[in-house]
Design goal:
The structure holds two protein chains of two kinds.
Chain A (H helix, E strand, L loop, with lengths): L2 H18 L5 E9 L6 H11 L9 E7 L2 E4 L5 E2 L16 E5 L3 E8 L1
Parallel strand pairs in A: 1-2
Antiparallel strand pairs in A: 1-6, 3-4, 3-5
Helix pairs in contact in A: 1-2
Chain B lengths: L1 E8 L2 H16 L3 E7 L5 H12 L5 E7 L4 H6 L5 E6 L11 H9 L8 E5 L16 E7 L6 H4 L1 H5 L3 E5 L11 H9 L7 E3 L8 H10 L5
Parallel strand pairs in B: 2-5, 2-6, 3-4, 3-5, 6-7, 7-8
The chains are: A alpha+beta, B alpha/beta.
């Protein structure tokens, strides 16, 4: 439900970057979305199609790249991707961890002409 | 056809507005508290109890985020020194407060005459976790009937919290809620976070929370 504002921000960044690069058309936008975020790519896609009308990004393809949850064990410093919801270190079994990755939400790159 | 690298966070604009809000709170020596919980966890009762504990010597403002109603704002009106209601329906985001909404609310509040601003977020454990508002403290209210597995389902909001409230402790004899299991699963992600088990119904445990909150106020 919060993808409207996200899509608006995304489009603003795309338009600014396209202008800066002197591009007349954006064809592909690659977005990185972490597994811990609640953002739904389908909803972003839905809003994007409407909001990008009459912009430099109209008709562009949105490509989403998922980022897995990455945890760092506070006991043995192992960095791992958890296999279940019970987050425990795959090496030493400790459950005391810090979240290293999975909360990303950024535009990585785009293709323009 | 050419590629341009961007690597820009989509939430950067929100974060920048949040920083502005934070500066405004700081400039007025106001402590801002973002209160997040599922629907029905007791956010409004918790706010009422918190105001009760602070109001003797502190002036409290409340920013109420709600999708459509003014029910929560009405309960708080008359007890708080200032109340601003934000109805999120029709706004870009309806499932969480975002920094822009707080910026607008702050224009309608005289922060010079307030010491603490309590922000009641929209009832939801997922979306509010993503948006910084400019708050000093992020507080999650969990209640015992919700079950002790919430941290496993919504790790982000618990991992980033500055305090965890366990509300409705008066119901502990009747519900399956293992406090030890609950606190352990949060400590695993957030080692130093303080827990405040309390009951907004009986008032038990509220004093400990209020005294901690007082200790977090900026020295003017």
């Amino acid at each position: 439900m919060h993808e409207y504002g996200i899509t608006e921000s995304l489009l603003r960044i795309v338009e600014d970057s396209a202008k800066e690069a002197g591009a007349t058309r954006v064809t592909v936008i690659r977005v990185v979305v972490g597994a811990l975020t609640g953002f739904v790519p389908d909803s972003i896609q839905f809003y994007f199609e409407t909001m990008s009308k009459n912009t430099v990004a109209e008709g562009a393809t949105l490509e989403f790249e998922g980022m897995p949850v990455r945890l760092r064990c506070r006991t043995c410093s192992e960095i791992f991707e958890p296999e279940t919801r019970e987050w425990a270190c795959l090496k030493c079994g400790s459950a005391e961890i810090d979240i290293e990755g999975g909360r990303e939400l950024y535009i990585k790159e785009m293709e323009v002409s | 056809m050419r590629k341009i690298e961007i690597v820009q966070g989509i939430l950067d604009a929100n974060d920048a507005t949040a920083e502005g809000n934070r500066a405004a709170f700081d400039a007025h020596g106001c402590l801002a508290v973002n209160i997040m919980a599922s629907p029905g966890a007791g956010k409004t009762s918790f706010i009422l109890r918190t105001i009760e504990g602070l109001k003797q010597d502190l002036r409290i403002g409340v920013i109420e985020g709600d999708m459509v109603s003014t029910v929560d704002a009405e309960k708080v009106q008359g007890i708080a020194d200032a109340v601003v209601q934000i109805n999120t329906r029709g706004m870009p985001e309806s499932c969480a407060l975002v920094a822009d909404m707080i910026q607008v609310a702050l224009e309608r509040i005289d922060m010079d005459s307030l010491d603490v601003v309590l922000i009641e977020n929209v009832g939801n454990l997922l979306c509010p976790a993503e948006f910084r508002l400019g708050e000093h403290l992020r507080v999650v209210v969990s209640s015992t009937p919700e079950g002790d597995d919430k941290p496993l389902k919504y790790p982000l909001i618990f991992a980033d919290a500055d305090a965890i409230i366990i509300n409705k402790t008066d119901l502990l004899p009747y519900v399956d809620f293992d406090i030890e299991r609950f606190t352990r699963s949060i400590r695993n992600l957030n080692a130093a976070v303080p827990f405040f088990p309390l009951s907004c119904k009986t008032g038990e445990g509220v004093a400990e929370w209020v005294s901690w909150l007082r200790s977090r106020r900026p020295t003017k």
